[in-house]
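User: Let's play a game. I give you a shape written as tokens, and you guess the letters that built it. Ready? Here's round one.
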């Protein structure tokens, strides 16, 4: 497929906003998006289950999670280079700890959709069902 696949929790409002940001800044059209609950994931990656993380499948078919997935996405879109360097200077142990806290509190803090959704503003060709 040679695309970067972002797998996210379709019930999570924060995750949906993150996907919208990545899609809007994807100037080279490298990303596709799907949810943990999608038929695409069930058929192609049956071992992947809903988790407290955004998951990225790289163009090389490597699976990344948590802060490593976030940094990988940010480094492949139009994003502030200073902020990216600052983020990369923080050890993954610390970033993953912060990520875990946000992931645990995401529904209470940002809310939750009643059904699994993919943001409507994303081009249909970027969505894997």
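Assistant: Ready! My guess for every position:
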């Amino acid at each position: 497929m040679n695309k970067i696949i972002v797998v996210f929790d379709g019930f999570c409002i924060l995750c949906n906003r993150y996907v919208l940001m990545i899609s809007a800044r994807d100037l080279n059209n490298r990303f596709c998006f799907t949810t943990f609950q999608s038929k695409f994931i069930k058929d192609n990656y049956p071992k992947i289950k809903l988790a407290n993380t955004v998951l990225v499948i790289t163009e090389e078919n490597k699976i990344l999670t948590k802060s490593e997935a976030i940094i990988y996405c940010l480094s492949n879109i139009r994003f502030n280079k200073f902020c990216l360097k600052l983020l990369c200077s923080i050890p993954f142990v610390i970033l993953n700890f912060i990520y875990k806290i946000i992931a645990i509190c995401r529904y209470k803090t940002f809310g939750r959709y009643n059904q699994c959704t993919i943001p409507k503003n994303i081009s249909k060709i970027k969505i894997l069902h």
